[in-house]
Amino acid sequence: MFLTMSLSVEHLTKYYKDFCALDQVSFSVSTGEVVGLLGPNGAGKTTIIHILLGLLKSTSGKVSVMGFDPIKDRLEMANVINFSSAYTSLPSNLKVSENMQVYAGLYGLQKPQNRIDDLLRLFELYQFKDRLTGALSSGEKTRLNICKSLLNNPSLLLLDEPTASLDPVMARTVRDVIKQLQKETQMTVLYTSHDMAEVEELCQRVLFVNHGKMIEQGTPQEIMLRHQARDLDEVFIKITRSQS
């Protein structure tokens, strides 16, 4: 089935008791787009991602992820999407290669060794394949998490600050790999980052959220023009201060 929209979010609202984490948030992401989800800490970005992954149930609103309902169709959806965050780690007591094998099994991959080796080489981790994951540096763990997220060749990839713990050289490598894979496969990417230069480089459109509300949507150039800003850094500061 061909989908023109990989993500569709309509009037998404999430309450934690009396606290409104998301307030009538609506947006869509077309198939093959790379879209930045931006906002200060506590803006609601992680809540949105967790709802898209089926880890949280919304209070109200409608969500479609690759044509699936994230709650009702979570197992089927898992075959075509994946997720990576700089703030989550894989089991530390398993070797790097063992972690990749375990997740390959969870994704139902047949004879995955070549895929695993290719990804580990791509992110310069092959030399650590027999090392315990817990013995890796924070940057190496981040890169391993990205490797995991690409195992099943996802049609939709959710990336939560994927370069946050990386040095500039490795951050450049990760950005280049993501750009190349996206170009080759037309993978849809929803990307959160506090590095606005990185967002300008990678993302065709950006979504700004703050205090659980959608504040801005558009291309980086459109949003910079509307806010009379030189770059997205300046836009970010203006939006955050005006909403504080």
Walk me through this protein's architecture.
The protein has 244 residues and is an alpha/beta fold. It has a domain at 1-69 and 194-244: P-loop containing nucleotide triphosphate hydrolases (Rossmann fold). It has nine helices and nine strands. It has helices spanning 45-52, 74-77, 96-106, 113-122, 138-150, 168-185, 196-202, 220-226, 232-242; strands spanning 5-16, 19-30, 34-38, 60-65, 81-85, 156-160, 188-192, 205-210, 213-218. It has a six-stranded mixed sheet, with helices on both faces. It has a three-stranded antiparallel sheet with strand order 2-1-4, covered by helices on one side. Strand 8 and strand 9 (213-218) form a beta hairpin. The N and C termini lie far apart (43 Å).
